[in-house]
Automatic annotation (TrEMBL):
PANTHER family, A to Z: AMIDASE DOMAIN-CONTAINING PROTEIN, TRANSAMIDASE
Protein name: Amidase
Annotated ranges, domain Amidase: 25-419
Superkingdom as given in the UniProt entry: Archaea
Listed Gene3D superfamilies: Amidase signature (AS) domain
Pfam families assigned to the protein according to its UniProt record, in alphabetical order: Amidase
InterPro entries: Amidase (IPR000120), Amidase_dom (IPR023631), AS_sf (IPR036928)
GO molecular function: catalytic activity
Length: 429
């Protein structure tokens, strides 16, 4: 069910006029109709193709000259269904009335539109971006989860239904599904992509992120989406990679650890220096503070909806909201302060050890069997908690043929360097 759909290739093909947008959309339509009945990555939409083709024709008429075309001219994208999109309902994987959840389209989606992208449609999400899964399956093996909460976005990109899709990450909802589906997932520095127009989970740690099949495409998209993007000269020196040894890394499974060692060996063979750095020995306390902060802020964000439609929430989400309602203000404040403390510790350790990027497994192991769970985000939590920019890169596969990958994290605000370095790291893997 895996199919090539590299964003950089799509941009080149459409902007240069090698293919018209309408022809490209028709090719995607054939692909969607062939695999989507089994994959279930997209939210059903009546009249999808008529809408998209009409928008494609309008773009072609508006930009007949290739030299005038915007950077993402004609690229169809998926949008996780917690983002508001003008003309499409927002359900957020829930059974609440779409009218109750309605809101204005935010900056991230608008930036993609302004850059010439087309909205292919909404992608399936777990309920309110938490743990209650939707129907989406892993395109590598439909008996396995694609991860979550950005389930549909990761699966759609891996299956070649679109070359880009939005996700969001509050713990591991971009990096983990990217790992499970074998694609590139990018979570920027906290706040670098605006969260306007998105149903809030935890305002202190919500990140807008996205999926592509290629690191070059990820860099092109990031340049459109991130505030104050800087086009820096390419770095010739390989980064020194730091492995966060200790209790954090001990959370990975035996299969995941074996895969990680294989990835490190490949990087050493490619000339990378890799340094082991003992850190995050208090990972259990960090995990607890992050989880409690999320519960409290979810309860705050959903207060009005929960009062009006509490019976419509799944038991999983309801339990977290009820927990969040009991958390005292001082504990919320402690959780928010912890983000800055962990960030400072991680960056200080980088300076002391002379490393440029952290590297770790993207997930505890390959995608678990079944779709009743989206897997454990524990390997992603400290990078989200600290707000460091992080990228998931595909690597080897398990004995069952399921993807295994790594995640690399850079200092706060160093998104440009991270993405520039990611090209050669991905090639080495």
């Amino acid at each position: 069910m895996i199919h090539d759909a590299h964003l950089a290739d799509a941009i080149r093909t459409l902007r240069d006029g090698q293919s018209s947008i309408t022809v490209y959309v028709e090719e995607l339509r054939e692909r969607v109709e062939a695999v989507e009945p089994q994959l279930e990555s997209l939210v059903p939409e009546a009249g999808r193709w008529e809408r998209v083709l009409a928008e494609a024709a309008a773009l072609e008429e508006r930009y007949p000259n290739p030299t005038d075309r915007p950077p993402l001219y004609g690229v169809p994208i998926g949008v996780k269904d917690i983002f508001h999109v003008d003309g499409l309902p927002t359900r957020a994987g829930s059974t609440l009335p779409p009218a109750a959840l309605a809101g204005q389209e935010g900056d991230a989606v608008q930036r993609m539109r302004d850059a010439g992208a087309l909205i292919l449609g909404k992608a399936v999400t777990t309920e309110f971006a938490y743990f209650e899964p939707g129907p989406t399956r892993n395109p590598h093996d439909i008996a396995h989860t694609p991860g979550g909460s950005s389930s549909g976005s990761a699966a759609a990109v891996a299956a070649g239904l679109c070359p880009f899709a939005f996700g969001s990450q509050t713990v591991g909802s971009v990096i983990r599904p990217a790992a499970f589906c074998g694609v590139v997932g990018f979570k920027p520095t906290f706040g670098r992509i605006p969260t306007t127009g998105m149903i809030e989970f935890s305002k202190s740690v919500d990140h807008v992120g996205f999926f592509t099949q290629d690191t070059v495409g990820a860099e092109l998209a990031a340049a459109v989406l991130c505030d104050d993007w800087r086009h820096l000269p390419s770095q010739r020196e390989k980064p020194v990679l730091g492995v966060p040894e200790g209790p954090y890394l001990d959370q990975v499974s035996e299969v995941g650890r074996h895969g990680f060692e294989t990835h490190l060996e490949a990087l050493r063979d490619a000339g990378y220096d890799i340094v082991s750095v003992p850190i995050l020995d208090d990972i259990d306390a960090i995990n607890h503070r992050h989880d409690r902060l999320n519960a409290a802020e979810l309860a705050i964000a959903h207060e009005a909806w929960y009062e009006a439609y509490g019976d419509e929430y799944s038991e999983t989400t309801r339990t977290l909201i009820e927990e969040g309602r009991t958390i005292p203000t001082r504990e919320i404040a402690r959780g928010r302060q912890s983000r800055l403390e962990v960030r400072d510790r991680l960056e200080a350790a980088m300076d002391d050890a002379g490393i440029d990027l952290w590297i770790a497994p993207s997930a505890p192991g390959p995608a678990p069997e079944g779709i009743d769970s989206t897997g454990d985000p524990v390997m992603n939590l400290p990078w989200t908690h600290s707000g460091l920019p992080t990228i998931a890169l595909p690597g080897t596969t398990s004995e069952e043929g399921l993807p295994l990958g790594v995640q690399c994290a850079a200092p706060f605000g160093a998104d440009e360097r991270l993405l520039d370095w990611s090209h050669e790291i991905a090639a080495a893997l």
